[in-house]
């Protein structure tokens, strides 16, 4: 019986794969059998080493989404059938003081780049008559407001909306578009929150699982959504949050 979670023979691009969630997802996809291209603006050598040491196959792709169109020519006739839009940045400041530069930087990377990378990927799939999977990395702030991160909150609400819109348009073309909404995960983006004793305690007090998530907690969900086990899953935003949203 064929393993529905196997990614053997599949080729994936994971953006922001040099650290954190992107690294864990890239390692997870490779462990499931995919050949993984690790897209990053800095060298993903650590990710490549982790995959190679486990017997997987991976390569590096230079991508800097300070230019939201950076991936427009990356897919053509290269056989990709999985795209994980993980690259993202965050800026923190009171909304009364938030700058236009910080607004634009976050929206460009987190939302504009995600849309146009997905568009380029889908155009290649359709030109080849191929099917594929897109997994976007959303956030709890796709549903909640948060504080002091206005552009991040706006971008992640947008990610959830675009996930549903693209699923509506592309499901009939054999392209699954879904998202993962990680909870509070130990990554560089949450370092400031974990260092704030009061905020850290308030967050932990609400998480039913009683701990911050680890990047590896996201990898299994990504493998599922990229696999044939999720062939009839379209437009879902899957919370992986230790129970935060159920509280």
Keyphrases for this structure?
247 residues; seven-stranded parallel sheet; 7 strands; Rossmann fold; alpha/beta; 7 helices
Strand content: 15-25%
**What summary fits the major beta sheet?**
7 strands, parallel
What would you report as the Rg, rounded to the nearest angstrom? 17 Å
Structural class: alpha/beta
CATH architectural type:
3-Layer(aba) Sandwich
Could you name the CATH homologous superfamily? NAD(P)-binding Rossmann-like Domain
CATH class: Alpha Beta
Q: Average the pLDDT over all residues and give the rounded result.
A: 96
Unreliable stretches (pLDDT < 50, length at least 5) are none
The tally of strands reads: 7
Q: How is the largest sheet built, in terms of strand order?
A: 3-2-1-4-5-6-7
Element-level helix/strand string: EHEHEEHEHEHHHE
Distance between the termini: 39 Å
Q: How many alpha or pi helices?
A: 7
Number of domains: 1
Overall geometry: globular
Per CATH, what is the topology? Rossmann fold
Please estimate the helix content. 25-40%
């Amino acid at each position: 019986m064929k393993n529905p979670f196997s990614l053997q023979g599949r080729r994936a691009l994971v953006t922001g794969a040099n650290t954190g969630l992107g690294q864990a997802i890239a390692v997870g996809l490779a462990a499931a059998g995919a050949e993984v291209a690790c897209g990053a603006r800095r060298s993903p050598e650590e990710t490549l080493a982790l995959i190679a040491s486990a017997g997987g196959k991976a390569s590096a792709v230079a991508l800097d989404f300070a230019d939201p169109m950076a991936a427009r020519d990356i897919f053509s006739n290269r056989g990709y059938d999985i795209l994980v839009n993980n690259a993202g940045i965050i800026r923190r400041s009171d909304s009364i003081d938030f700058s236009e530069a910080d607004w634009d930087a976050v929206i460009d990377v987190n939302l504009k780049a995600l849309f146009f990378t997905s568009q380029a990927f889908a155009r290649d799939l359709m030109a080849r008559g191929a099917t594929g999977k897109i997994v976007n990395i959303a956030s709890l702030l796709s549903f909640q407001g948060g504080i002091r991160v206005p552009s991040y909150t706006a971008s992640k609400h947008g990610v959830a909306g675009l996930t549903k819109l693209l699923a509506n348009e592309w499901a009939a073309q054999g392209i699954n578009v879904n998202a993962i909404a990680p909870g509070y995960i130990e990554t560089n983006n949450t370092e400031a929150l974990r260092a704030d004793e009061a905020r850290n305690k308030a967050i932990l007090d609400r998480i039913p699982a009683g701990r911050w998530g680890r990047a590896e907690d996201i990898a299994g969900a990504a493998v599922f959504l990229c696999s044939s086990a999720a062939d009839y899953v379209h437009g879902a935003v899957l919370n992986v949050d230790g129970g935060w949203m159920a509280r």
